[in-house]
Structure formats: structure tokens, C-alpha cells
Design a protein that fits this description.
Length: 157
């Protein structure tokens, strides 16, 4: 019984490296942690997350940092094969931060499950922070010509 309980309570640790000295980071982390642990996990069965000193890295870099294809954020694997995300600090950095944390936790090994990309221009407010929208599993099973409950912001069927 103890082993089962430990597995249920375990969470993926994420360590934010704030190289851009962004303000209010704890508030943003709290909103994104709530989003992943309650909303994303409900649909995608992704691991719970917690922000701390250790774990997969999420690096917030200055806005003038060169990025692949000019993207405001991206995730990849580091030299040790561990997931790492980079977020450029700019006007909508909390949405990009949310986007990358969601995708890093639902597809850490880069198998192609990009659940925020199909709705990357949509966001919503959660606990006073703007966060990224994401598609639901039905997005990949739905006739794309018909509107149904395919993303977090879509009205319920």
C-alpha cells in the first residue's frame, strides 16, 4: 500500500532558471502548476508537476536571445537527454511559459504530441495569469470541419 501511495503522490519537478529577472515569477508558476495539475492532467493524464530547485529545466531568457525560427519559446532535450524549455521574456511570456510547460510534461521526449500548437494563438486567464490554451484528445479524433469540444476554450458539446 505504501508503494502505491508514493507513486500517486509523486510529481515531476521543474526548475525555473530566471535569466531575464522577470518579476512575479512565483505567481506565474502557481497558475501554471494549477493548470497542469488540474486541467491538462484531467484530459491528458500527464504527470503532476511542482516547481522547485531541481528537475527538468525551464529557462527564461532575455527577449533578444536568438531562438529557433524566431519562436518566443521552444523545448528540446539537453546534452544529458533531459527535457528543457526556453522562454523568451517578452509581453506575453506567461502564455509561452504555460505553453512550453504543458508540452514538456505531455510529450517530454519530443514524439510529436504538440497539444498547444494547434491553438497557439488562444489563451485564457487563470488565477490572474494569462495561460496557453491546449487541445483535448478529441481534437485528433474529430472531423476538423466541425466545431466540437476540441480545446480548453471550446464550449462543451
Amino acid at each position: 500500500m505504501r508503494t502505491i501511495l508514493t507513486a500517486v503522490l509523486a510529481a515531476q519537478a521543474l526548475a525555473v532558471q530566471n535569466q531575464a529577472n522577470v518579476p512575479h515569477l512565483a505567481r506565474i508558476e502557481s497558475a501554471v502548476q494549477h493548470q497542469v495539475n488540474t486541467q491538462v492532467r484531467r484530459w491528458w493524464h500527464s504527470p503532476r508537476i511542482r516547481f522547485g530547485q531541481d528537475g527538468w529545466r525551464v529557462v527564461i531568457v532575455p527577449n533578444d536571445t536568438p531562438a529557433p525560427d524566431g519562436d518566443p519559446a521552444w523545448h528540446t532535450l539537453d546534452a544529458q537527454g533531459q527535457p528543457v524549455a526556453y522562454v523568451r521574456y517578452g509581453p506575453s511570456w506567461p502564455v509561452s511559459f504555460s505553453h512550453e510547460v504543458i508540452e514538456m510534461t505531455t510529450d517530454p521526449w519530443l514524439k510529436g504530441l504538440e497539444i498547444c500548437d494547434p491553438v497557439e494563438h488562444s489563451s485564457y486567464e487563470l488565477r490572474g495569469t494569462w495561460v496557453s490554451d491546449f487541445v483535448l484528445p478529441s481534437f485528433y479524433r474529430t472531423n476538423r470541419g466541425m466545431r466540437s469540444e476540441i480545446d480548453r476554450l471550446a464550449p462543451a458539446g
